[in-house]
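The records we work with from here on pair a chain with its fold. These numbers are not coordinates but entries in a learned vocabulary of local backbone shapes. To see the layout at work, look at the sequence and tokens printed below:
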Amino acid sequence: MTPSSGVAALSSLCAVARFHQIASDPATLAHQMGIASTDAVTTADLLGAAKHLGCRRASNIPQQCAMNEYSGNAASLERLTCG
């Protein structure tokens, strides 16, 4: 993932978190996770950031739908629930 798409991924995660009334800011989240603005954000980074915000896997998604099956960040985000 390129650095610019990493920023977009963190911004998208923060938008989902804010939708669920969890205060979040992409720059603050990146700092808290130790991700520099020039770093590429991996799926593992994104899922770790989601966990840091209090998001978890939606309970109605089977366990087989793990990160390994869905390598894209959008697929990972749509299977998360926050709050």
